[in-house]
Write a structure and sequence with these properties.
Two copies of one chain form a homodimer.
Chain A: E1 15-17, H1 35-44, E2 46-49, H2 55-70, E3 80-82, E4 89-93, H3 95-98, H4 100-107, H5 112-119, E5 123-133, E6 141-144, H6 146-154, E7 161-167, E8 178-180, E9 187-189, H7 200-203, H8 214-224, E10 236-240, E11 245-247, E12 256-265
Antiparallel strand pairs in A: 1-9, 2-10, 3-4, 4-5, 5-12, 6-11, 7-10, 7-12, 8-11
Chain lengths: 306, 306
């Protein structure tokens, strides 16, 4: 397959054209986003949805997620990522597959239905995780385009994927919220340097390859500005696979956590990585490509059979 | 001298009463702050002053400060503090004594006059510095009350001092601005643990003693909230010596810098440290106690004699 988005090959970075639409579907009445929301997402590469879930649903998601963090036994150990230099859990991967409630959340029409509309195809979950940025010493996430990594390291052919973050705690300007560079998704910033094999083990803690160039970032941020979408628990933040984003650390006492789902179009299923020969494990880059069966209706607590 | 504010002595932290006023002077018409500003400072322990300097003065301060950072030769080497793990300059101390323009700034009636009013006494500069938080990898400053350190390590007897930060670059919510806990200045949070001798060398890079307790910080921040005053270059941020403050790191491309002056009331001049026996050096805790001669009028470029 032709590599439309080569990266980590040249000694200098460059801004290449984007060959794919941002909004793959066509807006029509009845779409799960308004025309205005759709245009905003197209232009800016991100979108904030408020009041998607009702308070009981949010409380359910919060307690379910806290249970997972507090009792990681029963989870595949490989899917648990700790902070650099501590045992504190930073992320748990493959949450849609390991937890019934979070699997139901990923399939919810208010989430997956929006992804299906924007990507104009059946969708599957390329990656899911519960992110937890603890208070007092939550670490930063440096700037990156997810697509650059997914393309080079996982073999995602085209820009036809998006991320949805469901906030499980209030994100303020002060507790290390996601920052995006609006409009950065419309070009493809290549990175320099080759990717070592099995790089993913350390890159989940601290990115060292696929790191965007500082001069390029300065130009992007100067042209487009930086926005940190904030909101109450339950707020949903969507962003395009190629939107440049990152987050500062968090010294406030207030932890920040979210449930994070990456939806990819089925037609954009992974091929072999365009960079290193070895694949990353399935919990980071799914290769089952299982179509999400979209479910309507509220999230409710499921009682287990006695 | 009696120690009204004992700290780093007990195995558990506690919140002690504040024995000193916040606003030592009494407001009257003609004061350098409005009655409303004075009350705000009294209640919240910080205050933001905008449009204090005109654009030419701000440009002068910016170019003068950048010159200092770019050409540290000629400065006392001990006053130059670099980032942990790099040679990048984080702070330059004693700037009022080492640079004519910054000395003039410290004496400006719009700065020193406000300090004199709030502290109701002649003032001297306990400490001054140029702070520089570089873009991309600016490090965090953990929460602390300055007074706790100045009392224990420097022998500042009472709470009759304040800090003024003159922003030399725009502070946004995203580039690691100062964060304060409004109202935290009204109690004294003691810290646990003894202070090692010559602790200052490392503490200027990363604080390890005099660190407030996490549970106490959580209670303070939950009760009072966290505010991050932001503003354009030229904005002045004042805060009381006992206001709990800190800042997150900065991954944005936009550096953050400020000129920072600590004014102390002459009547509150340092005695021997209440903690360790050894004094910190004068560039960190001045013991000349030289009254600031307050100067009125604009900051102007001084041509050197040929």
């Amino acid at each position: 397959m032709d590599d439309l988005y080569p990266s980590r090959r040249e000694p200098t970075p460059s801004l290449l054209p984007r060959h794919d639409p941002v909004v793959h579907g066509r807006w029509a009445p009845g779409a799960p986003l308004s025309d205005e929301q759709t245009r905003f997402y197209d232009t800016n590469g991100y979108l904030v949805l408020e009041n998607v879930f009702d308070p009981a649903e949010i409380a359910l998601l919060q307690s379910g997620s806290m249970d997972l963090l507090a009792n990681p036994a029963g989870l595949d150990r490989e899917t648990i990522i700790t902070e650099r230099g501590s045992d504190e859990v930073r992320s748990i991967f493959a949450i849609h597959a390991q937890n019934e409630l979070l699997g139901r959340l990923a399939a919810d029409s208010r989430i997956a239905g929006v992804a299906r509309f924007l990507l104009d195809d059946d969708v599957y979950i390329h990656q899911s995780r519960l992110n937890y940025k603890p208070g007092f010493d939550g670490k930063e996430f440096y700037w990156h385009s997810d697509f650059e990594t997914w393309h080079v390291e996982d073999g995602m052919p085209r820009m036809r994927a998006l991320s949805m973050s469901i906030l499980l705690a209030e994100n303020t300007a002060n507790n290390g919220p996601l920052m995006v560079i609006p409009g950065s998704h419309r070009k493809y910033l290549t990175c320099v340097g080759e990717t070592p094999e099995n790089h993913y083990r350390s890159s989940l803690k601290k990115q060292e390859y696929g790191v965007p160039d500082r001069e390029m970032l300065t130009a992007l941020a100067s042209d487009h500005g930086i926005v940190a979408p904030t909101g109450k628990a339950g707020t949903v933040v969507l962003f395009d696979c190629n939107t440049m984003h990152g987050s500062n650390g968090n010294i406030t006492p207030f932890p920040r956590s979210n449930a994070f789902f990456v939806f990819n179009a089925k037609a954009n299923s992974l091929v072999e990585p365009f960079g290193p020969k070895s694949r990353r494990p399935d919990f980071i880059a799914d290769r089952a490509f299982t179509t999400v069966d979209i479910v309507k209706g509220p999230l409710v607590r499921r009682e287990r059979a006695a």
